[in-house]
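Justification of resources, computational component.

The compute hours requested in this renewal are based largely on the per-chain cost of generating structure records like the one below. Each record pairs the submitted sequence with a full structure-token output. That output is archived, and it is also reused by downstream analysis tasks.
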Amino acid sequence: MTEDELIAAMRPGSRSPTEERDTPDLGRFGLGLKSASFSQCRRLTVVSRRDGIVSAAIWDLDEVVRTNTWAIEVMQDPSPLPWFRQLRGSGTLVIWEKIDRIADGVTHDKDRIAEIANERISNAEYHIRLVFHRFMSVSGRKALSISLNGRTLKPIDPFAESNAATMRDQEDVLHLRQGDVVIQSITLPHHRQMSQQAWEELGGPEGHLKSQGFYLYRGRRLIQYGSWFGLARQTELTKLSRVRIDIPNSMDSLWKIDVKKSSAQMPPVVRDRLRKLLDRISLGSRRTYRKRGQKLVDEARMPMWSRIQTGEQISYCPNEEHPVFLDFADRLDPDLREAFMNCIRLVGSSLPVDTLHSDMAGHAEKIRGASAGEATVIQGVEAMFKRGLAPGDVWTILRDVEPFASHRELVERIIVGHQEVRSEV
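The structure output for this chain reads:
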């Protein structure tokens, strides 16, 4: 910026909000730089170099209080300023000093202040990586590079578009007088189809249940996310559903974008369109969970558990016809056989439904079945063969079922052994 442009930029409300903006312009009210800075510090310095000429201006709230005058200070020689040497070519440097808002109310405990500061830096890092991810993901010279404490930040794509299992619906375009609203529904992969680190990063600090819903972008900058705007509830079955909504900066008034550009109100015409699309939007997530759940109760796979629905009531109980149970029961005398089956039924009737519901509502992806040792797995596989099943059928039944899926190599060795014996016979 030139000195005149810098002074104008330091003025609160430097441009009329009704003035037409260029398409990539993220501003609107001319308040962002100043309001964001004063929310964190009492002294704001901006240095800008253009065509080899350096200009610098300072807002110091302590001076405003002392003089009772809202006036900026124009610096003649900004070279002593921190990080001034990093300003090469054309560019702008923003410096915050007298930072007094990081640890509000904590003034004496240095350890506590450091802890709060580190926590807020971590939150700021996540916010930057998510909000500006589309600018940071661009390849070539137009890519935005952001560093924090010497580390180059990597973008967080809330739609996991690099994952081959991500499902994308076709874009739906709503043409309005102020521009186009582009809507695209995306279904995230199941948590078993990505690393735990990638899954947790996608969920963010509040988890996937709170991160589902609409992701509103203004000029490719994320404005608001993790909400269905009152059109649906956040549920476990829909937590893989995310909807990207792109709007241009010409729609600020229509969407009632606030000064901080962190919240918006959905116009009725857009709400009506999304209401019609909602069933299709959530279908992918529901299908993913139900399909995986169906594998566990599919009769063709001889499940360890049976799902029984009577009217509106659903219950789960161990499958008494499973080869593992029948093989062991056949080795018992009649009295012990009946006692064994009663124990199996007791396990089913004591299923901790309330506790499971509570855990599923919070962190479903963290729920795991109890681990089983190799001896348990071997007994289970051998029981299938004792019931007369062919090796290929045993593999089809067990490959997606725990604990056998976690001991894939062991199961394969047992099956291969039975195949070799059969071939010799």
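The two ends are 87 Å apart (CA to CA). The chain is about 40% helix and 20% strand.
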